[in-house]
Amino acid sequence: MNGSSDGYSQLKKIGLDCINFSIDTLDESEYLKICKKNNLKKVLSNLEYAYQIGIFVKVNCVVDNLFTFSRFESMLELIKDKKIALRYIELMPLKYSDRNTKMNELIECVQKNYTLNAYNNKLGNGPAHYYTIPEFQGYIGFIEALHNKFCGDCNRIRLSSVGRLKLCLFHSDGVDLKPYLNDLEELEKVMKEWIFKKPKEHHFEEEHSSTVMNEIGG
């Protein structure tokens, strides 16, 4: 997104009703370290415009190894007076040795310091479970792929930039679709065949992945 108001207006006209922003911190120096570019003000400006023209906004924040409760509290500013969904995503490192318990620690701190009221309405089709906090207009969501598996409700598949259909973020199972691109009937047949092979659940907690995040699109 180039940040222009015209861009978002066009997206709204064609029916876009929700947009996700990835913002791990509201501290500019931290943002620069994470993203390698100091674009935080530009991102927040885009967020504000999308919200003002009526596109529902979700903000994704990864609970990484350096995440602190003070970072959580500062990010609450995003939902103070806006009906934005602020979602905290458990880190899913693909090496067993890199995993942490930061998400559990965060949830314990939030429960200790704030009143959380379960929000049972759906906010899109994602796996987050949502809460509201008194005096805040928006929503807090937690996505816990390791400690609160949601595989039974997952309907996602991924198509990589090299044409490989990947059935699960973690599993290596998948199929190369490039040989079928000139035969739409066969392409549909192969996709259906493989989609029904989607694994029952991931095994992040037990195994290493054969791929890394930047090879599969996150």
Query: Main sheet?
Result: 6 strands, mixed
Secondary structural class: alpha/beta
SSE ordering: HEHHEHEHEEEEEEHH
Report the span from N to C terminus.
18 Å
Number of strands: 9
Mean model confidence by pLDDT: 85
Please tally the helical runs, counting DSSP H or I stretches of 4 or more residues.
7
Fraction of helical residues: 25-40%
Overall form: globular
Strand content: 15-25%
Can you tell me the residue ranges where pLDDT is under 50 for at least 5 consecutive residues?
none
Major β-sheet strand ordering = 1-2-3-6-5-4
Characterization of the model:
The chain has 218 residues and is of the alpha/beta class. Helix content is 30%, strand content 18%. The strands form two sheets. It has a six-stranded mixed sheet with strand order 1-2-3-6-5-4.
Could you give the topology of this structure?
Elements: H1 5-13, E1 18-22, H2 28-35, H3 40-52, E2 56-63, H4 69-75, E3 85-90, H5 102-113, E4 117-119, E5 129-132, E6 139-143, E7 158-159, E8 164-166, E9 174-176, H6 184-195, H7 213-216
Parallel strand pairs: 1-2, 2-3, 3-6
Antiparallel strand pairs: 4-5, 5-6, 7-8, 8-9
